[in-house]
Structure formats: structure tokens, C-alpha cells
């Protein structure tokens, strides 16, 4: 999928042309409009996604173990990318722990998180979690006689007396700015603010050369990214986002022919409904390996789950947030031909709570016939929890 | 006290000279160094302060009653200023309810609060409360189908997708900027950040003409203003602030000859110790009229109360924060010649919780012999709760 990057000459030319084309037509949420080559199923007919969830970069920069755990998170992602060689990385929120960051701008830490994909030429997409734009929380002990420890990231000039977190729009602008052609992330429509990471990516059919039928511009998979809130505002998918999803899906996929997958950070309340009892064994039809805590769901449900359940083209939802859960369970709220799967990713970063071994959920989609399978790849190379999401 | 304002020619000349002098000597926290005429006891030997506490401007700008209650707060201050004609207004924190303000910069609301003093040519000083730099808290119902109500203060350009509160340094810079010669507020030393409103004002002796003894540059009262935190950080007076107070008081008043008064927003834990039982009658030695709630004290005590109690020159501490308390009680934690009084102000604004009638604590200090008396002036003109703080 990312082979274009290995021959930069034509790729850059194509990207430049695409930028010109983009300037001449109305803006859309499609990555193609941003000057990036389209995502596309590979010659083998598959498209593989690695989900990196809850990296939590930037904790305790004033200690040794803070930077050390960030280095450990680098190694987890490197191990997974070595083992899986995905076509796309989805960063599933909480890339940074902004409430632990006494810096005027968290983009450097955010950049370190996405550099795992960028450094290997792998396209990536991000959604916001509840920690990414949080304001710094002053440790109470800094007001005691011990005072403020020496900081490795001192406040720059003009940073004022507070560290208010970096607005989602600023983090996204830094990620997707000039010369960031591997980022497929996007700031969604302004009417969805304060939610920002609301956009759609399409993965095109594998193309003429392989199939010879002229369908190389047809999308064969739609991926919807949504901002589930938190940090600077309520942890919620809003009613406005539900309307946006309805409009987008009707426009891009009116007959539901194209399979659809959904990505956001905080589990919806539906996750709590399908969850196996916390700390109990995970039994079929659920599949997973850790079930160590209660689901910590969004604050309210304003209709997104109903909207998803009604579309049989929607196959699965992927979230992070709960570091102690890695299961997939079917959601049986509606009559559907196939299940709608609700999946947790796997805690990928050494930042954030929990000491469960780190890994990443992998998702492999096949174009014809459509199938979606998933498993978890651990830092130590092992693989487990294989599940078919299109049975 | 503010008569200099009525003859602007000499006053402006003096201010310009003071600026030149200030540029030639090390910066101090003294108002004189900022080009403002010194505060001074009046010809009658008295100096009167009005304390405006918890105005909470800017609530519910998207309704009718939000702006209406701000107008009501304007009227309370006008009534008190008409009745008392003070020499100084102290705004004792929570001038605005920033967590209710969907605006990129709260300085316009802050400015409305201080305009009560400015409009009458009365000098003023401010300290920060816990609501002044809070980030906007998105109402959960704005994510429902009802959506976001029409805002009377729409976000300006460049405001991003979040309203993160206006940093204390920005609020103070706007208040004390060019042509604000009536503001005696100051941003304290950077080493006290995130606390900002840490500074000392001195009130000079009533001067040569009245006394004929050449002591017209002698300070006869020191007023210490401290930032008791909250909002963007912990509600606390830090150990660093205690050290700063120690250094300042030793420098300005080494022999404790000059009486000292203290102003901050959030009651220290000592207030909870001396408080009459909530909702009980206020009995001597305490003096006040409402006692309707528990003291909501700072999160920790890092030594400021001990530092104050040790200095017999410190006569009283004044705080706001608890809208349902207006008493003064003596603090008997240390052996002292005179009591150290701990006083609440009176809820002045129509913003903020509580429907107790609005008013303002008045403080009148006499130079020779030194005395400090206080009472509460209500919006309706009545006066009550007279107390002598130097008996």
C-alpha cells in the first residue's frame, strides 16, 4: 500500500498534481483532495491496519522513567510494524497525556507518536482521545516546600503562567501541515466543533492492472473516524456528529454496497451492554485475552449506535480508552444480516495506567469476497485472539 | 484619595516622571514604580477600602437572565460606591465565571467588573479567584439534538475549537495595560507562577501639609495581595509565596512598625478552625450576619498562616469565595498582642451561587493612632456588622 513512497519521484509529482486538482474543486473529507495518493487494496486483494491505542506520550518528563517509558512505547510500535507491515496505522486516541505535560505546545510529543509510522513510510490516521488536549494538571506537591522539579521541557517564551493544553485544531494542524503527505488525518467540519477528528477515508479497489475491469477508482472500503470527545469537553459523540455520519454515509454509500468500519476513542454505552462481566472469562461469541475492568463509556448516547446498527454495511467499531480490555463482542441491538462487532484495541503505550503486556490490534480486510479478520500482535511477537468480524 | 485624577495636568506629569524614575531603578512591587500616584491617607487621617467579592460576570450569556444579572451587579457596586466613596476598591477574586464563558478572551467581562471603580476615578486592585481563568465547561446538553444555543458573544476569528480560559497573565496584562493608571494591580514575580496576583501596595502617611513633620513619604499601611490559586491550578497559597511574603515583609517592614493587611480569595484552613458552626448564630467574638454554609478552604496550608500569625503587625486577612458567609472571627493560633482577624467579604455580584442579599465589606483604616474598623454596606443602603479589628 505504501510502495509509492519508495519511489519518491513519481509519487511527489502525483502529489503535486493532486494538490493542483484539489485547489480547483470543492473541499471534501477525502484524503485524495489533500494531495495524498489514495489508499488502495494491495495486489493480493488485502488491506491491513494496525491500531495503536493509548500511547500516552509525555508523562513525567521531570523523572527518568517518564522518558524511558516513551522510549519503550517507540519499541512496541517498531516491533508491531516489523511483524505486520501494515498498509495503514490508526492512532486511536490518547497519543499524549497532555494533563501531564508542562509545555505550551504538545505537538512535539504528538509528532513522536506518529513518527513510528512516518519513519517507515506507512500512512496513518489519528483520532482524538480524552487526554490529547487536556490542560496541564499542576501536581499539588509542586506547591509544597519541595517546589517545582527541574523540567526537561522548560516553558518557552510567551507560554504564560499556565499550560492549557494544545487545542485539538492546533494538534491536527501540526500533524497535517506542510510536507506531511503520509498523514491521512483531517479536521472535520467546523459545525462539529468542539469535536475535530471527524472524517472519512476510502480505500480504493485494487485497480486495473490486477483486475483489468476499469474499476480502479471505486472505493471498496469506507473508514469513518469520529471524535468521541473528552479532555477539553464532554466525552460524547454528539447529535450533530450523528447527523454528519448520516449525511456522509448516504452520500458516499447510498446503497450500502461498500463495507464500512468505524474508529473512535471512548467506548459507547453499547460496549457496556455487550461486555462480559469484568474479570470473568471471555466466552464466545466474544473473543479476547484481557477483561480486567469495567467498560468506561461515553457520558451519553445521542444516537450513533442506532445509526450504525441500522446500516448492515457497518461491520465493526474500534475503540481504545480501556487499557485493561482487548475483546471484541457482537452487538445484537438490531436485526441485521451480519453482526456489528464492537472491538477494543490493545493498550500499545507504556504511558497510561495498567501493566498488562503491550500490543496492538491488527485488522485485515480482504476485498473480494469482503472479509474482515482481526488479531492482537504483542510486543514480544506473539499473536492471539484471532476473530472473524464478517462471519 | 483619588483627587489627583481631577487635576490631570500635574498628575500626568508626576506619572511620567515616575515612569522615568522606575526605569532607572530595580523593579519593585510598589505601585509608585508603575507611574501611578502613591496611595495616601486622606486629610482626615483615614483610608477607606470597599471589597467587591465574587461578582461572577459573564454567566449564561446565551439567556436573558445572564446579562440581566450582570447589570444587577453593576447596580450593587454603584450603590456601594455612592454610599461609601472609598479611596480604593479591592476586587477580591471571581470577577468573572470563566467556565461559563464561551469566548476566546474574558478580558471584556473582567473590564466590565473593574469599570465600576474606573468610571468614578477610584483606584482599584484585583486578586484572582478560582473562576477567573477557568476553561469553558461545555454544557452536556449542547451535544444533544437541541444543539448549541445562539451565542451573544460569538467566537472571534482564530479562537480554535476550544475556549480554554484566559490565562491570569493575560487578564492582568489587559487590566494594567496602557492608560490604566487607576489599576494598582500587578503581576507578581515569575517564580511564583502559576500564581500571579502577588504584590504589595503601600499607603503613605497623610503628608507634610497636614502634619508638617516631613514624613510624607513614609508608608503608614502595607497591603499584601496574594493569589490563592484555583481555576487552572490547585487552590493553594504555595510555600514559594510564603517565602516571598517573608522576604517582602522583612524588606519593607523589618521592625513591624507599619500595620499590615492581607487580601486573597479562598479562605485558608484556619478559617475553618475559627468558624462558628454552619447555620448557627454568629456569637462574639465573631461578628457577621450570614453563616449559611461550611467554609470551603484551600486544599493545603503551606505555612502562610503561621507566617502571618507571627507578625503582630498583621491585623487582618480578607477573603471571598464563600458566598454564604460574611463574618469576621479572631484567629487565636499564636500569642499576640492583638488579635489577627479572619474576615469574609460579602457576596457582591448577582453571578455565582446563593440568593443572600448583595453587599460589600467596607474597611476603614485610621493612621494615628492606627485603627481598623469594618462593616458591611448593603445594596439597599443599610449598614450592619460593624467590627473593630484593632481592639
Automatic annotation (TrEMBL), chains A, B:
A Pfam family reported for this protein in Swiss-Prot or TrEMBL: Metallophos
Xref: CDD domains: MPP_Dcr2
Record-linked Gene3D superfamilies: 3.60.21.10
Residue ranges of domain Calcineurin-like phosphoesterase in the record: 47-323
Domain of life of the source: Eukaryota
SUPFAM superfamilies: Metallo-dependent phosphatases
InterPro entries, A to Z: Calcineurin-like_PHP, Metallo-depent_PP-like, PAP14/16/28/29
GO molecular function, one term: hydrolase activity, acting on ester bonds
Span of the signal peptide: 1-23
Protein keywords: Signal
Family annotation (PANTHER family): METALLOPHOSPHOESTERASE DOMAIN-CONTAINING PROTEIN, PHOSPHATASE DCR2-RELATED-RELATED
Protein name in the entry: Putative inactive purple acid phosphatase 16
